Amino acid sequence: MLDDQRLNWSEIDTVLLDMDGTLLDLHFDNHFWMDRVPVLLAEKDGISLDQARARIDAEYQAVFGTLNWYCYDYWTARLGLDIDLASREIQHLISLRSDTLPFLKALRESGRRVILLTNAHPKSLSLKVELTALDQHLDQLISTHSYRASKESQSLWQAVHLDLGFDPARTLFVDDSQPILEAARRFGIRYLLGVENPDSKKPHKQFDGFAATSDYRQHLDEIKKGPR
């Protein structure tokens, strides 16, 4: 469902974009962390798949919402698995959303500043850029690991704002996470958009209190008018 009434594109000149689920299909990440990693852990430790899933679920919950939750180095050390290598073994699952390129093209041609702001680890970001050429469609790419804080943290928003110098009142932030959108709102980002279908293999999700979309192409006519 699209709520255009809450996005005044004429007043938006900076667009901050999440990556996984927002520009890329989240299926790769969900499959990797929820299916592939438990299989590898079970094989390494000689335990059942159910035991591996239970352990990993507890590990995930312990750091949910923190930078470690997204950190390849943390999970490599914690689980004794080469997370970077394991992700490359299924890299064929990495793909752009079907509406991503038309969306990015319209944003760039409208003269807006378009910046990737992702919690993904630099190794994950590097692999995905390598396979999708996403960097060719963005003005800047930022992994929050360079700030040692995730988008759930107000300190991250303060630091990014200081570095980028954007006007929160004229900025749109797009993400598939309700808690992260809430963090952006607390910081003062005026325009916020949730992604209802981050994983092409899963049902749509709902957002509470945020405009949301399942296809960026529904916004293109408004985007092309450019900011005032």
From TrEMBL:
It comes from the Bacteria. NCBIfam families: HAD-SF-IA-v3 (TIGR01509), PRK14988.1 (NF011564). The lineage of its organism: Bacteria, Pseudomonadati, Pseudomonadota, Gammaproteobacteria, Enterobacterales. It comes from Gallaecimonas xiamenensis 3-C-1. This is HAD-superfamily hydrolase. The keyword Chloroplast does not apply. Keywords: Hydrolase, Metal-binding. CDD domains: HAD_like (cd01427). GO terms for molecular function: hydrolase activity; metal ion binding. SUPFAM superfamilies: HAD-like (SSF56784).
